[in-house]
Amino acid sequence: MDQILGQVLRNAVWERLDMLADLANRADAASLVSVARSELPRLTEGWRAMLKAHEPDERGDCPTCSTRWHRCKAPCSVWQVAHEHLVAGGLAPQQDLRKRGRRAARVAEQVASTGRHALVTPRQAVAGAP
């Protein structure tokens, strides 16, 4: 049951991001201003909440990414992605599909053939089973 609810939650987030990206690419100027005024504060608060959860502790470890057996030193991957997208922006180098490896290429092919938001169990997604 938790897997299904988790997948529904993830699908809703992906769909929202797709809708915003589509608006950014296709909307007229007036619509873009309206969307920016309503969505930018929400997106900013979302980033802040996520980054707050990944703020390093007194030892310099990320409390969210660390486990009892494995400490994750800051900056964790969440902070690295935040920096790449919010600070480096278009200056950050983008990997093309050829350089990401066979695993990433298979996942990209699966997304293209089944749709990014298809309800699949994690095992099916990893194994590529129908």
The biggest sheet amounts to: none
Question: How many individual domains?
Answer: 3
The count of strands amounts to: 0
Order of helices and strands: HHHHH
Q: Distance between the terminal alpha carbons, to the nearest Å?
A: 21 Å
Share of helix among residues? 55-70%
**How would you describe the shape?**
extended
3D structure, described in words:
The protein has 130 residues and is an all-alpha fold. It folds into three domains: 1-53; 55-94, no CATH class; 95-130, no CATH class. Helices cover 62% and strands 0% of the residues. It has helices at residues 2-26, 29-53, 77-88, 102-114, 122-127. The protein is extended. Residues 110-114 and 118-130 have low confidence and may be disordered.
Provide a quick synopsis of the model.
The chain has 130 residues and is an all-alpha fold.
Topology:
Blueprint: H1 2-26, H2 29-53, H3 77-88, H4 102-114, H5 122-127
Keywords:
130 residues, mainly alpha, extended
